[in-house]
Predict the structure.
Amino acid sequence: MQADKRASKRAGLLRSAAVMSVITIGSRVLGLVREQVRAHYLGTSMASDAFGLAFQIPNLLRRLVAEGAMSAGFIPVLSEVEEQEGTEAAMAFANRYFNLVMLALTLISGLGMLGASVIVGVFALLSGREISPAAMALTTNLTQWMFPYIGFMALAAVAQGVLNTYRVFWVSAASSIAMNVAIIAAAIGLSGHMNESAYAFAIGVLIGGVLQFGVQIPSVVRLGYRWSPDFKPGPRVKKALWLLVPTLFGAGVYQVNVMVSQAIAWGLGGGAVSSLQYSSRLLELTLGVFAVAISTVVLPTLSRDAAGGRLDEVRDTVLYAVRLCCFVCFPMLAGLFLLRAETASLLFERGAYGSESTRMTSYALAFHLMGLVHIALARIYVPVFYAFKDTRTPVLVAFVAMFVNVGLCYALDGPFGHGGIALANTASAFTQAFALSWFLRRHTGPLEDKVTGPSVLRSAAGTLAMGAVVLWLSPMLIEAGSRGGELLLPYVLLVAAAVVTYVATALATRHPELTEVIGIVRRRVGR
C-alpha cells in the first residue's frame, strides 16, 4: 500500500513537472528568441553590455526580495495556514503579505531610480578596472529606466506563491511568456525609431513586468483572493518575515554570483558581459527543461510531508527528483558541450553578432556547462531546507559559495579572460550543491536507497553512448566553415541521432525513469 502511494505521488509530481516543463520550455525558448533579437540589434557591443548589466541590477533584487521571499517564507507559511485554518484565513494572510510587499518594493524602486548612478558606480569599483564614461552613462540611464520593473515583479511573485501553494503551476510559468513577448515586440518595433536601440529593450522590460503580474490576477481571484487595504502584519506575516530575513542574504546567491561575475567582466570590456549572458541563457534554457520545473512542483509536497513528520516521504521525493534531474541533465550537458560553437553560431550569428561573438560565447559556455548538474541539484536541495523552515543553513552555504565565486573570478579572469569567470561560477555551484547535500542529512537522515545509484549510472552510460555518436557523426555532417543558418539541417540530424541513441540505451538498460515515463503515457492513452 505504501509503495503504491509513493508511486502515485511520484507520478503526480512527474505529471506536474511535465506540464511545467512544457510551459517553461516555451518561456525559455522565447527568452532565447529575446536574446537572438538582442544579438541582432546589439551584438556584443558596449550598448549590449550596458543593457545586460542594467537589466541584471533590478533582476538581482527581484530574486532576493521577491522570489526568495516566496520560497523561504511565504509558501511554507501559507501552506500551514491553509492546512490548519482553511482557505479564508490563508487568503487573509496572503492579502496582508501582498500589501507589505507592495509598500516595500515601491520604496525600493524609488530609491533605486534616484540612486542608479551610485549603484552603477559600485559595480564599476567591483570590476577592478576603469570603465569608460560613455559606458557608465548609458548603464546608469538604462538602470533608471528599468528599476520600476522590480516592483511589478515582486507583486507577480506573491501571486505566483499563492498559485503554487494551491498547485496551480502553469499560470505563473506562462506569465513569463508575456514578459519575453513584450521585450521582443518593443525591441523590434522601437529600435528603428531610437538613436540607441538599448532603450527599446528597456521599455519592453517595463511593459513585460506589468504583464507578468497582470495575467496572474484572474487565476488568483478564482481561488478566493480579494484585495483589501489591510496593512496590519499579524503573527503569520511576522513569521514569514522571520523566515525571510536570512533568505535576503542567501536565497539569491546564484544571482549575486552572476552579478559580481558580470561586474568583473564589465572591466574586461570587448563584449565580455554580453557573451557571458548569451552563454548563461543557453545554460538556463537547459535548466528550464526540467530542473526548474521539478524544483517548483516539489516544494508544496515537501512542505506538507515535512509538516506531518513524514521523513520517509521527504527522502523518497528528494531522491526521485535527483534521479529525474540526472536523467535529463546528463545528456543535455554532453550534447551542448560537444556542439557549443555550432549552437552559438546557429542561434545568434546574424546582424551585429559575428563570428568573434560566437567564439566568445562558446568559450564561456564550455566552462559554464561544467556546473549544469550542480546548479540543478542545488535548486532541488534548497526547497527541502525551506520545507523544514530551515533558512539558516542555505544562507551559510550560499555565503561560502559566493566567496568561492568572487575569489576565483578575480584569480581566473587574468589567465582565462571571461572564461575564467564562467569557471568560477561552476566552482561555486559545485561547492553549494555538495555542501547542501551534506547538511541536508540533518533533517532527512541518510539519503540512500537501492534505486538512485543504478539510475544515475544508467544515465551516465546513455550519455557516454550518445556523446560517442555525436563525435562520430559531427565531421560527416558539418562542413568546415559552416555558419549560422547553414548549420540548421546538420544540427537537427545530430540532435535527432543523439536523442535516439540516449533513449535506445535507456531502454536497453531498463532505465527506471524512462520506464516510469512510458508507463504513465500508456496509462494516459489507455483511459
About this structure: DSSP finds 21 helices and no strands in the chain. The mean pLDDT is 80. The longest helix spans residues 2-42.
